[in-house]
Amino acid sequence: MTEQQNIQEFLDSGLLEQYVIGATTVAESQQVEHMIADHEEIDFAYQKLQEELYTYSQLHSVEPPEDVKAEMTARYLDQKVHKSAQGSANRWNIAAILIALIGLAGVWYSQTQVQDLQQEVTSARKNNTQLNNQINELENKQTELETSMAFLRSPQTQKYVLEGNQRAKGLQVMAFYNPTQEKARLEIDKLAQLDQDHDFQLWADVEGEMISLAVIQNVQSVELDPKILQQAASLNITIEKAGGSDHATVENLVAAVPVLVRS
Question: How far apart are the C-alpha atoms of 75 and 193, rounded to whole Å?
């Protein structure tokens, strides 16, 4: 990019206008000041903007509210009006000072409005940042959902439904395993009621040994170890003590399904 293109891009960015009204961040202000110092075209544009802002302020000067005028006048009179007995010249001086004070009140009121505008700009930027964060969060969730749905719908994903027997009426979970992606998950549809001292536990029967895959609690899904499912002959659910057991209590078996692993 040529220097002229760089200057034009900067002028088109709107940073210079924001700098003139005091709406830039510290970093942005430093960038603008650097560009003003290094480029005559930008310095010229800066001077013109200042002139335009001054002309605009003169054409649209804000009359301070009557309560501001009254407060400024009362404060000054409380301190100075007793000196008016010194002569008519002092009275004229007081009148001139009061006019000046009211004029300053107008300037102060205008500056207050500018400060309010700057606060609104800052608030808008903050809200914009929060909105961007929310959008990013939603996009991440959408990506996760799309990835999850692609896994569940893949022709290579094997699906196993486990339903509770008489001891666990209403229990229904689905195990998904994709040997190509080497990924496995348990989706919990419904859980039967258990007392607080017990949990359901999922096991894989690997060469006659029950290996724990997950303690099934009140969550929607649980990631499973695909390496264990690759060797499993069946999936089984038992009722165990709260938090799970190291060894399956076979007499508490409530659901089972054979696994036919296809590579």
Answer: 76
> Which residue reads 């409530």 in tokens?
254
Residue 248 DSSP one-character state:
-
pTM to 2 decimal places: 0.48
Contact by Cβ (8 Å): 221, 186: yes
Q: Quote the tokens at residue 251.
A: 């007499």
Write out pLDDT tens, residues 59-69. 545 555 556 55
CB 156 within 8 A of CB 58: no
Question: What's the pLDDT at 240?
Answer: 94
Residues listed for the chain:
263
Cα 68 to Cα 166: distance, rounded to the nearest angstrom: 81
Q: Are residues 188 and 220 in contact, defined by beta-carbon separation less than 8 angstroms? A: yes
The token pair that represents 116 in the structure block: 């309010």
Sequence-ordered strand ranges (E) for 40-182:
158-163, 172-178
Cβ atoms of residues 188 and 173 within 8 Å:
yes
Rounded Cα distance, 101 and 96, in Å:
9
User: Cα separation of 205 and 259, whole Å?
Assistant: 9
